[in-house]
Specification:
The chain is about 30% helix and about 20% strand. The chain is an alpha/beta fold. An eight-stranded mixed beta sheet has the order 1-23-9-5-6-7-8-2, sandwiched between helices. Helix 6 runs parallel beside helix 11. The longest helix has 28 residues.
């Protein structure tokens, strides 16, 4: 290769570099990327799919800020520049509007909902009116009179929006600088004035949320098993996590199945919640009040159960995945039935579940039990009597609903589905939910009136106890402190460490022994009974290094994965949850100005013309290159 060829290669590489840099710079000038975008994603079960998605290349539409439901006509019929990407204020994010947009989806490219900084005044629950109606205890086999919420519609405010399928993307946007840019872009370019269409250029938005899975769980799981590449990628994943549990006295976890002379009371709460949008599921009332109350009770009872062990072992249990057809509780019941858990169902004396207990002004708790199993058992009556006695000296009233009132949606139903175990579910509602924002993004700390005085520092807030914080001690000795913690949608490990800290014991062992689950190098038994955690600890007031230590507890994790996936592989099961979540690659949104179709076609035509002309000139020049670029060379023996 000669020197001239090398120079050409260098020049080409330099041109490519500058073209790449130039394209990146142009891209930044054309698009404004949105920083906070949370999508609605696709979920699937044994029969169908729900949720939202975009096309593979993202959905593009002209921005239209919806002012009222009456303004929908512009999007669905009158507007001359479809498809539209509709911007909704939270007050307009209703089933009525969303179903109209769904039915006119050929003119709708997507929806962006502006999440408010404060909760709306109107109730909102995108969940169904009868949560988990097909996987609880009340079926046609158990008692048809109670099936499908025939007696009590627990969530009458539920609009079922989270269980609809939309063939366009729906995003939640934080009400911040991004949304201000969007609104201004709409006002500058897209606003309809006196009924006349705005002129180009128009402000447009593009949303990316393409989902890999389609149809149902059986289809996506079958596609997961098909490998066409060296590094195969699945299209969906079963919903699942881990249950957290601890016992008031050590239980051998290595030996599974029945334990002779072991009598267990399961004290349960759920950990999970959901909303319409992925990863926005505060669940303050629907789940946090329950599991924080149970954490507080476990802490308050720690010393009492160690100093005077009760006749029965308390099994503090925190279930994951209960929103999606009782994933966690159904798995624990399955493992107990198949000798895959530390105890079996024969060891279970009763169940006490803490549900939604974010007390309102009337300060009442309701003790729910199953009217069917109660007919043949007196244990329920004993449980209710003990709870009523315990509440006499407290500032809370404990009542029972009517005898014909069925159980509300609860993990306890999965135990009853296996056998008639006595049990009580503690709730703050007599019949229908008092939660106005059940399974929505508004079920948050604001809804429970959780706030701190403005003059407190971040550290002082951690020590501050609000009035709401006293609620968890209404059924246990008020000796422990409780602070509301805003948890993410994946609180499993946080609850695991909290429970270990609240119920465990600090032991004097080395870091190595602690991490090897033993008291010392000769200890071969402790790992069957306990779980050891090495804790970093805090920095003392006058120190510079953390004071680490080891905590020994009876806290363990167990599977919260539906038996329909493991081990049964029955993806069309009607007995167990079959929910899966689609995988995706890109979640993003951006806005830009779009030219008219005529201008785009003109630009394309000019570009094609330039390309053809360039090719023609290149061909002509190449064919005459020997004439155009030839230069008479002097002979090598020429002298001057």
């Amino acid at each position: 290769m000669d020197l001239l060829s090398n120079k050409w290669i260098v020049n080409v590489l330099i041109c490519c570099f500058f073209i790449g840099v130039g394209c990146n710079s142009v891209e930044k000038k054309i698009y404004v990327h949105l920083n906070y975008t949370v999508p609605c994603v696709r979920l699937l079960n044994a029969t169908h799919q729900i949720g939202c998605q975009s096309s593979l290349s993202g959905n593009v539409g002209v921005l239209h800020v919806l002012e009222s439901e009456d303004n929908l006509d512009w999007v669905l019929s009158k507007g001359p520049n479809p498809p539209y990407l509709v911007i909704l204020e939270a007050a307009l994010f209703t089933r009525s509007i969303m179903m109209k947009l769904k039915n006119g989806s050929n003119r709708v490219a997507g929806v962006a909902v502006v999440a408010p900084n404060t909760n709306p005044t109107e109730p909102f629950s995108p969940y169904t009116t009868c949560p988990n109606e097909n996987t609880g205890v009340y079926t046609e086999k158990y008692d048809p009179a109670y099936a499908h919420c025939n007696v009590t519609v627990w969530n009458p405010l539920g609009n079922g929006l989270a269980y609809e399928e939309f063939d366009f993307p729906i995003f939640s946007l934080k009400d911040d600088n991004d949304t201000q840019v969007i609104r201004q872009c709409f006002l500058d370019h897209n606003q309809v004035v006196n009924g006349s269409a705005p002129q180009y250029p128009l402000c447009a938005m593009q949303l990316y949320s393409h989902m890999s899975a389609v149809t149902d769980t059986a289809t996506c799981m079958r596609r997961n098993d098909i490998n066409f590449s060296i590094s195969p990628e699945g299209v969906c994943d079963p919903l699942g996590d881990s249950n957290v549990w601890a016992s008031s006295r050590p239980i051998n976890t290595t030996q599974k199945g029945h334990k002779n002379s072991e009598n267990v009371i399961i004290a349960a709460a759920r950990l999970d919640s959901r909303s319409f949008f992925f990863d926005i599921a505060p669940g303050a009332q629907s789940s946090v009040t329950g599991f924080v109350s149970l954490l507080a009770a476990a802490h308050a009872l720690r010393n009492a159960t160690q100093e005077a062990p009760p006749n029965r072992t308390i099994l503090y249990t925190f279930f994951q995945g209960e929103t999606f057809d009782y994933i966690g509780s159904s798995r624990m019941v399955y493992d107990m039935e198949n000798n895959q858990f530390a105890v079996d169902l024969d060891n279970v004396h009763s169940v006490l579940e803490v549900g939604q207990v974010g007390l309102r002004s009337d300060s009442q708790l309701w003790l729910h039990s199953d009217p069917v199993s109660r007919r043949n058992s007196s244990v329920n009556d004993e449980l209710i009597e003990n709870l009523q006695v315990a509440s006499k000296d407290l500032n809370v009233t404990v009542n029972q609903p009517q005898a014909s009132q069925p159980l509300p949606p609860s993990s306890f139903q999965r135990f009853l589905r296996a056998r008639p175990i006595p049990g009580i579910v503690i709730e703050d509602h007599q019949s229908v939910f008092t939660n106005r924002y059940y399974e929505s993004m508004y079920d948050n700390a604001e809804y429970l009136n959780i706030s701190y005085p403005s003059n407190l520092t971040a550290d002082e807030q951690l020590e501050h106890i609000t009035e709401t914080a006293t609620v968890p001690f209404t059924l246990s000795p008020p000796t422990a402190e409780f602070k509301f913690i805003h948890l993410s949608s994946e609180p499993t490990f946080l609850v695991q460490y909290l429970l270990a800290n609240l119920t465990g014991t600090v032991v004097n062992v080395t870091k190595e022994d602690c991490q090897h689950q033993r008291e010392d190098d000769k200890d071969k038994e402790s790992h069957h009974l306990y779980h050891y955690m090495w804790v970093q600890g805090s920095v003392p007031p006058n120190g510079t290094q953390r004071e680490s230590f080891c905590v020994r507890s009876t806290v363990h994790l167990s599977k919260a994965l539906s038996p329909a996936f493991d081990p049964l592989k029955e993806y069309t099961s009607t007995e167990y949850s079959t929910w899966t979540e689609s995988r995706w690659k890109t979640i993003k949104g951006r806005i830009f100005l779009v030219a008219s179709h005529e201008l785009e076609m003109l630009t394309l035509g000019v570009g094609v013309g330039v390309l053809v002309t360039s090719l023609l000139l290149t061909y002509l020049i190449s064919s005459k290159a020997d004439i155009l670029f030839s230069s008479g060379r002097e002979p090598t023996n020429a002298t001057y």
